[in-house]
Design brief:
Number of domains: 1
Helix content: over 70%
Distance between the termini: 10 Å
Structural class: mainly alpha
Order of helices and strands: HHHHHHHHHHHH
Shape: globular
């Protein structure tokens, strides 16, 4: 189960980087996020006819909704103020340590010495990537707030997917609440601008929405199978994929510090993969 969860979380990380690259490339990021989440909800809607309701997890779903709303606002603000190669490592790099602490306190999970070392290396590597880029204090605060909210929803959703009768049931309801709830809020917030963005970017939004189901669906299922601290840190290998996309697709620079950070993340990920 541990190796299966690890493979699921690595696939999740790769897909997550692509989703964020699509969001970053959009001109109206709040409208883009509404398109992504709305598409995800439409895609999972038919599953309601085949899955049981997530009895026992409604409270966790409500908490997840509130935290995701904060997370997405912070994410949008961070991406509006900085390159993906700067903001993405900060927000994702600060999350594993916080998620590990939350998981130990809230879920009562243990953190072995090797897992703690892997978590530390992944976080250090991601922050090393970001340190080579000049960032303003406002963007830094938005990115750190994003990281804190990532840690919070990771632990809440891990508890929720374990409390639900089945993993697919909770996963489906997470995407339904985010898409028809937060997606609708963002669309109304942007008003006519959302309609213009939807007309121009609906294909990208649909593709990113489908990938969102893959990335977070796999992550939630993995959290049901294995320890959250190890998996939450391992998921941050998405930063490696994000850095490659930022350089090769978005044409951003990759200084030596970012390369060194990527190698540090790879070392941390290797330790986590070998941790039983």
């Amino acid at each position: 189960m541990s190796q299966l969860a690890s493979m699921m979380i690595l696939t999740s990380g790769a897909a997550h980087a692509v989703v964020n690259a699509i969001l970053k490339s959009g001109k109206d990021k709040m409208s883009s996020r509404a398109l992504i989440d709305g598409s995800s909800a439409i895609l999972v809607l038919p599953a309601l006819f085949f899955l049981p309701p997530p009895h026992g997890a409604w409270g966790w779903l409500a908490a997840s909704f509130a935290i995701h709303l904060v997370y997405l606002i912070c994410l949008i603000k961070a991406f509006e103020g900085a390159d993906m190669s700067a903001a993405y490592p900060i927000m994702r790099g600060s999350a594993p340590v916080l998620a590990s602490l939350f998981a130990v306190v809230v879920l009562g999970e243990r953190l072995s010495a090797s897992a703690a070392a892997g978590v530390g290396l992944v976080s250090a590597g991601t922050l090393l990537i970001a340190s080579g880029h000049r960032t303003n204090k406002r963007m830094l605060l938005w990115a750190l707030a994003t990281g804190a909210s990532i840690a919070a929803y990771t632990v809440v959703d891990a508890a929720g997917v374990r409390a639900s009768p089945s993993a697919p049931s909770y996963i489906a309801w997470v995407f339904l609440s985010l898409g028809f709830g937060i997606g609708a809020i963002f669309a109304i917030w942007r008003g006519p601008a959302f309609l213009l963005a939807a007309r121009a970017e609906w294909k990208a939004g649909l593709a990113a929405g489908a990938l969102s189901v893959v990335t977070y669906g796999l992550a939630l299922w993995a959290y049901r199978l294995d320890d959250v601290p190890r998996l939450a840190a391992l998921r941050e290998t998405s930063i490696l994929f994000g850095l490659l996309i930022a350089v090769l697709v978005l044409k951003e620079r990759a200084p030596v510090l970012r390369i060194a950070g990527a190698l540090t993340i790879a070392l941390g990920a290797a330790i986590l993969l070998l941790t039983p």
